[in-house]
Amino acid sequence: MHSIEVKASTGSYPIYIKNGLLEEIGAEVKKIYKGRRIVVVTDSNVNEFYGQKIISLLKGSGFETFKIVVKAGEESKSFKTLLEVYDKLLDFKINRGDIIVAFGGGVVGDMAGFAAATFLRGISLIQIPTTLLAQVDSSVGGKVAVDLPRGKNLVGNFYMPKAVFIDPLLLRTLNDKFLNDGMGEVIKYGAIKDSKLFNKLMKYENKEALLKGIDEIIYTCCSIKANIVEADELDTGERMLLNYGHTIGHAIEQFFNFALYSHGEAVAMGMYSITRLGEELGITKIGTSATIKDILIKYNLPWALPEINNEAIMETISHDKKNIGGSMNFILIESIGNSFIKKIDISNIKNYMEKIIK
Ligand SMILES: NC(=O)c1ccc[n+]([C@@H]2O[C@H](COP(=O)([O-])OP(=O)(O)OC[C@H]3O[C@@H](n4cnc5c(N)ncnc54)[C@H](O)[C@@H]3O)[C@@H](O)[C@H]2O)c1
């Protein structure tokens, strides 16, 4: 079993990664949680595949279990769902000695994580991520949030889990669209920090070969993320590197009302276009954007920006919550594996964007 200890200001927590780890979940949870009552929060799809299994495994280890199932999809990262979850927690008479297990993709992880962070001013949380995106990204680093009608992730907190348990075998039931989506984030780690990982990703011949080695890939990605979030827990410095491709990606997602492109697809286009911009500015080694394009095509992710309106994108970017004091941090790469933060004055961003959106 791979394990990574993530140091946080509120104490450190482990990430465990092992094929088949779900089968051992009862015994593993017992090692880190001395209470008896567990609330599993999951979504309707994950419940279908694994809901009964996780409950019977936890019961088998002597826990008293409760389950809350929310509708699958981003719409559950809302205050409406959150209120329903709080209601159920009250029905179950959950108190501060009990624990919430967020069992699902990034939606469940963020929403149940926010519920854990806020219910009774905070009860303990375990993350068991079930999508590739959640296994390599959202379950690590403690960001929890819900959306508002006017934007994503606008209400949230930093709330560290007691542990993260990752079973890569759960990805076998994930459909290809979501697998590719997660690959967008995996490619990002290679591009910003690890050329070896990037080159390895270039070599997989098919999905089976990729899934065979996915536990190692997840370990590499979690190690990169753990190092970054340890150095910058509250996202004011190095952690911004994780936003490579995300500023433009978020703007695309928002422009199309989150309906046309998934997060991974939007970030993929963002990574390619910001790298092209880096080349135009003479910062990025020529040919890097072509390499990014090749890998995105390999993993069925889009690279070319869609027809969009520059003014509308500018409007979205200027409201991005990462704007601080009239400037914005863009993440550029010099070459594959070497990234840095470039502060750009908001007033200049329009010129830069015109170079990208043609
Ligand atoms: N907290 C963070 O640091 C962070 C980082 C990145 C993204 N996010 C958030 O993550 C969310 C996206 O997460 P996501 O892509 O995991 O989406 P998701 O949670 O909606 O899961 C995608 C789909 O896969 C299904 N699914 C999940 N696990 C499955 C499995 N093992 N087998 C079959 N189907 C399965 C889900 O039901 C859903 O339909 C967004 O809300 C985003 O804002 C958070």
Which SSEs are present, and which pair or pack?
Elements: E1 2-6, E2 13-17, H1 25-32, E3 37-43, H2 44-60, E4 64-70, H3 79-91, E5 99-104, H4 106-118, E6 124-129, H5 132-138, E7 143-148, E8 151-158, E9 163-166, H6 176-193, H7 195-203, H8 207-212, H9 214-231, H10 246-255, H11 263-280, H12 288-298, H13 310-318, E10 327-335, E11 338-345, H14 346-356
Parallel strand pairs: 2-9, 3-4, 3-5, 5-6, 6-9
Antiparallel strand pairs: 1-2, 7-8, 10-11
Helix pairs in contact: 1-2, 3-4, 5-6, 5-9, 6-7, 6-9, 6-11, 10-11, 10-13, 11-12
This protein binds nicotinamide-adenine-dinucleotide.
Radius of gyration over C-alpha positions, nearest whole angstrom = 20 Å
State the assembly state of the protein chains. Answer: single chain
Strand content: 15-25%
Output the number of helix runs.
14
Structural class call reads alpha/beta
| Distinct small-molecule ligands in the complex | nicotinamide-adenine-dinucleotide
Please provide the count of β strands. 11
- Residue share in helices? 40-55%
The CATH architecture name of the largest domain reads Up-down Bundle
Largest sheet: 7 strands, mixed
The main sheet orders its strands as 1-2-9-6-5-3-4
Number of domains: 2
